[in-house]
Amino acid sequence: MNALNLGWHCKSLDSQTTLRCGTYPTCSHETNALAFKGSESMGHALKIPFGNTSARRRLRNHIHPPLRVVCVDYPRPDLDNSVNFLEAALLSSSFRSSPRPSKPLKVVIAGAGLAGLSTAKYLADAGHKPVLLEARDVLGGKVAAWKDDDGDWYETGLHIFFGAYPNVQNLFGELGINDRLQWKEHSMIFAMPNKPGEFSRFDFPEVLPAPLNGILAILKNNEMLTWPEKVKFAIGLLPAMIGGQAYVEAQDGFSVQEWMRKQGVPDRVTTEVFIAMSKALNFINPDELSMQCILIALNRFLQEKHGSKMAFLDGNPPERLCMPIVDHIQSLGGEVKLNSRIKKIELNDDGTVKRFLLNSGDVIEGDVYVFATPVDILKLLLPDNWKEIPYFKKLEKLVGVPVINVHIWFDRKLKNTYDHLLFSRSPLLSVYADMSQTCKEYYDPKQSMLELVFAPAEEWISRSDSEIIDATMGELAKLFPDEISADQSKAKIVKYHVVKTPRSVYKTIPDCEPCRPLQRSPIEGFYLAGDYTKQKYLASMEGAVLSGKLCTQAIVQDYELLVARGQRELTEATMG
């Protein structure tokens, strides 16, 4: 949570000079781009074990001129006609088409992650004046990223954009940046721990509609589950398929492991498939994760033809996703302020918010206030007068889960990988990807950069970076037996970054659902946004964006009440 230093960086990868899958020399192109350097993330540290990386990069660029790479990604799937996409589009359009307010509200929003950015964007669309405050110098919250001294980016997490993210997909379209998503083949690829270096695939045929494409993908895979296990799993899932959303929500009280056993599903199904899926969804194991989380994901993946199809962003999230949102907000008269950490929520005599006091000593006043920070930050700053209110008291059970994101640059191009997200099925690692293949901006024809999610991380979050890297290399030796060894006698580490997030998305354990708050709080003029608030996509980027739209919807619905409140306060102040 340390405050970071903001830097302006002139050399940036232009979208026209960093495409992939065919290489041609080109001149470097310079643009003015907001970049974040000299920064220190939550617990992150940079190590360069050996060698002069900067000199090596200059030498490499001399021998191999900057490259123009031609991309051959998969086309954007037909998402625009799905029911969920159309519902999301309707909600977006409701803000743009709503009557222009006679007195635009000044809405002060804490937190410039996706929830805060979404809230500010849609409030601006509705004709109001958001003022977005970010404590750090980095946009994006849980999708923040930093640039190191070599010009390489490292991120808070490995972010995947699913076809089943209708509000995120609408957001990209509204900003005119659909082309910044690199869609991959419709597959899920799992490492095989019992066969080091080998993978097992679930391939979703494009010619079939949902759920047939998903069912066939499962039936065709005979490496991970036997036919009897598939049958028992299918029978166990029948109540969820028949009972719909009501049944899914009722399973919140069971962990994945408990639910599977209750339904007669063999433990091996959990071991083979759902350890990896649980860690990918919430960074915890099936004995802790609420079954509701798994059922929601399965429902989206099986009911929407392209629901499980994945895309990578074509570069770093602050510039490629967050800055277009900021540009949109500012074009409509809104403000975005970095390095604006909130010290205290100051209250009026009636318990409503008077203003936000910043660490700098500045105060920010508005007509409406929104907290779009992680739930743990909200709980730290919650005024004493509010703590016993049931709406806020329930938040005690919502706690962020620790996660570690690891980036390792190797001295060679690794061969045993795919242009896709990979499920490691490792006890220490969750998912990983060779970002030098999957992402245009990070493309490198000579060296691999693996980005890996280290989870569960609770026992590792306080350990040293070198211990984490050593453990990671031990696991990578099993995934790349012919190319990586724990002692670096094969592929050697050029450098690495470790980004620790002690409190990431809320830990989706059983019986959390009743504790998730609605976006409209009982405090007049105070609202919440964040993936932990009540919305149907749980702890995800989609959930964060949707929460911002629901928060905006509540404020727009309350407009007359909020204006009357402001007039009342003005009258009282005048009379006083």
From TrEMBL:
Cofactor dependence: FAD
Name of the top EC class for this enzyme: oxidoreductase
Domain Amine oxidase: 114-555
EC number assigned by the record: 1.3.5.5
Membrane topology (UniProt): Peripheral membrane protein
The keyword Transferase is assigned to this record: no
Pfam families: Amino_oxidase (PF01593)
One BP annotation, GO: carotenoid biosynthetic process
Pathway terms, separated by semicolons: Carotenoid biosynthesis; lycopene biosynthesis
InterPro entries cross-referenced by the UniProt entry: Amino_oxidase (IPR002937), FAD/NAD-bd_sf (IPR036188), Phytoene_desaturase (IPR014102), Zeta_carotene_desat/Oxidored (IPR050464)
Coiled coil feature spans: none
GO terms under cellular component: chloroplast thylakoid; chromoplast; membrane
UniProt entry keywords in alphabetical sequence: Carotenoid biosynthesis, Chloroplast, Chromoplast, Membrane, Oxidoreductase, Plastid
UniProt cross-references to NCBIfam families, sorted A to Z: phytoene_desat
Protein name: Phytoene dehydrogenase
Species this chain originates from: Salix purpurea (Purple osier willow)
